[in-house]
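Researcher: Please predict.
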Amino acid sequence: MWLGALFTSTAANFGRLLIVGLLPNAILVAYVWVLLMIGAFTNTAPLVFPEALSNISFKTDAGGLLVFVLSVITLTVVIQPFQIRLVRMLEGYWHGRLGVFPSRLATGVHTWRRARLRRAANSSVPNVNDVELARMPIAAQVRVQRRARRIEARSERAETKLMSYPPGTEPVLPTMLGNTLRRNERVAGERYAMDTLRTWPRLYPLLSKKVADEFDSDSDGVDASANLAVTFLVMAALGFVAFANDGWMRLVPAALLLLAVAAYRAAIAAAGGQGLAMSVAYDLHRFDLIEGLHLGLPSTTKNEAERNRQLSHFFMVSDDTPDPPSAADELNLSYVHPRRD
């Protein structure tokens, strides 16, 4: 499937394949090649970095370039299923026996952190009127005002951080990336009583080009940054093995770990942008979905919410039930067909 997409994709799709799949693996292949050229895995004596690099010839011919390109494409095709699984792990989907305890521990930490942030966000500033404040000594006035500013600043920071967690009583995931993406899936359509998970695949084809491009750009950013985070983690692991006895050279895998953290944080930021794009899509195009289903536009927000709940429930049972019920049995709606010239 991926290889077919490589040869049949448009320029935009190829750009996505380049930044999401080919670029991270090209970095990995080049890194492994440099490690092999300097003998990092075979040398028992400590490596001297400048001298080791001087033994590498960076000149290559067309044949060498072809080998490099084919290596990158082959590696991308072979490891893509595993790469997807690793990215899912970054999102917090830790399945299997080994993942049960770490998942529960990390989920518990995030549940506690969300509760603490909510308390901080709801903190009230001490109510001291001007008369009482004027009666206080100058030093006491300064303390009261500073405390009020600290509480306000802490409340604002807490509200910002809460934007990366699922709303209400929705369960959290073990990682911040997973929590940010889950928030996207629980907020965008729910504001209008639409189940985002069920309605988004039906809404996306109806989006305007600007909104769709913004969502696609943020989605590519999430995938590319997550793949880079995984790539840098693999490179760091290889580096710790290759430079186990090389003293200062251990700074290389340490730097790669920092790059992995930076890429992971970039994925979280891109996921936040993706959520905003999804909310904008529902704000501007939810009625396009209603018209696409040949239903009449609602006259009030209450009527809209009631019908959206019906549609969301129907989509849910249709998508998740082996023998889905018919629309006639589940829905009691009247069609409004557009006129055809």
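Model: The CA atoms of residues 194 and 308 lie 5 Å apart.
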